[in-house]
Amino acid sequence: MVKLLRHLKEYTKESIIGPLFKLLEASFELAIPLVMAGIIDVGIKNRDYPYIYKMAALMIFLGLLGLACSLTAQYFAAKAAAGFGTNLRKHLFSHINKLSFQAVDQAGTSTLITRMTNDINQVQSGVNLVLRLFLRSPFIVAGAAVMAYTIHKRISLLFLLVILILSLVIYGIIAITIPLYKKVQSRLDRVLLSARENLSGTRVIRALNRQEDEIKQFRESSDGLMKVQLLTGRISGLLNPVTFMLINAAIIAVIWFGGIEVNLGVLTQGEVVALINYMSQILLALLALANLIIAFTRALASGARIQEVFEMPSSVQELQGKEESLPAVEADDIPVVEFRDVSFAYATAQGNALSNISFTIKRGETIGIIGGTGSGKTTLIHLIPRFYVATKGTVLVNGQDVQRYPLKQLSSIFGFVQQHAVLFRGAVRDNMKLGKKDATDNEILHALEVSQARDFVDKMLEGLDTLIEQGGKNLSGGQKQRLTIARAVVRQSDILVLDDSSSALDYATDARLQKALRGRLAGTTVLIVTQRVANIRNADRIMVLEDGQMVGFDTHSRLMATCEVYKEICTSQGADKEGTGI
């Protein structure tokens, strides 16, 4: 939590002014019981009405000053807390965007969303309360005890006893509830994960008639969250009644012993009233402190979870002090992509996803990558633009280790189409410009022609201005895939990577797409990951993967003669004869 306070640095002034004005308010509040004692002991006792009016006016004046100080403190505290929350949210979002795929996979999307929203809100509320109360409440408690001491030394010992007992109670409750609040946030992660999976997979759930099972599972997650919240609430709820009980018992004791002292002539009636007021002030201050502690405990638990994300190392990082781009390499004799004895293992996996892969790809080649499910095709191409970092060996692009590239420069080399077609809410034109900000309409239309998307875009009522709904829900699977391919083509990158990005296309459209890629992207190195032999049989070379091993890398005809795995794939698809294919 302390490390997160660096995001409050921009609001240092507000963070100082808020508590200071709260101290001023507390000072005026501590003076009021003495004024009341004067009214009783002097004004009422002597029937001195002018003195009563004067003291009453003074009390009103002190109250108005306290109100003004309180409003000022509230304003600056709220401004600092809101600014802190905004800065924290921005920096956390920026950090998450810099994490590698592996780090995001390990943390989980639902967990990151919870920490971006609920956890930051908890920390922001905690900062707001701390700025307003962390000086005021202890100052009131200590000030009231000191003022009581100036009035009567022995009775002030009662104040110290009550403060000591309440401090022990508060400490005990904090020690119990901090782990529970962490558990609450963890259970909230599970609920959000369940909700997210159900909402994103609602069509599958209904198709399989699994609604009742999913409802039961969600109810169990929700009930688990409720039980932990109730337990935490019950323990935290002990603070207020215990505080009231102890303070009210102390007030009774003050009245009892104060009355005895009045009869003995040691104390005046006004001083007893002042002692009772100071005890009441301690009550209110400790109640506020109890609420502060509850909020602060939640903030501590949430702050620790947020800090965990900040401390999550990204395997994809810029080299320290490396900001300048590497010089462009145009030489044809230098491989555009090269793997040197590369192996890779996911953090949660026991074995390697790829093992000892070595190959080179020349500039302008079209490379097909094929293999069974889980053979490592997607993992391999994710290592090239440094989405993941190889656990062994070296990946080179244009003769340079990908680790040496600034991320921005490395990204500019690639046009990448993922397996899952992702479109964002906005016009077709806006989605295309995600690939290239300054793309002209002619460039966009050319990319749409290459991806075989021009026909259906032209038929839309508003053409390039047609609104795409979130996730492309108003488009078919094939249309989404073609638009994502167009978005990658419009970048005009040196290397175009298609990760099984035409699986939803019919064979005729897919054939036209492959022909357009070969004919209109001359000079571009194209890597095509696919399950269809027909898509890559005309590629310059084809890489065959099996269980993370490269078992073949050659032309279609040679692989048919030398690679049993490739031959089996072709036979299973009816593409084992030259010139045939599904």
Essential attributes:
582 residues; alpha/beta; ABC transporter transmembrane region fold; Rossmann fold; 2 domains; six-stranded mixed sheet; four-stranded antiparallel sheet; 12 strands; 62% helix; elongated; ABC1_TM_dom; transmembrane; ATP hydrolysis activity; membrane; ATP binding
Structural features, described:
The chain is α/β, with parallel strands linked by helices. 62% of the residues lie in helices and 10% in strands. It folds into two domains: 2-310, ABC transporter type 1, transmembrane domain (ABC transporter transmembrane region fold), CATH 1.20.1560; 337-572, Rossmann fold. The strands form three sheets. The protein has a six-stranded mixed sheet with strand order 6-9-10-3-11-12, with helices on both faces. Strands 2-1-4-5 form a four-stranded antiparallel sheet, with helices on one face. Strands 7-8 form a two-stranded antiparallel ribbon. Strand 9 (495-499), helix 17 and strand 10 (525-529) form a beta-alpha-beta unit. The protein is elongated, with a radius of gyration of 35 Å. It is a multi-pass membrane protein. It comes from Candidatus Dojkabacteria bacterium.
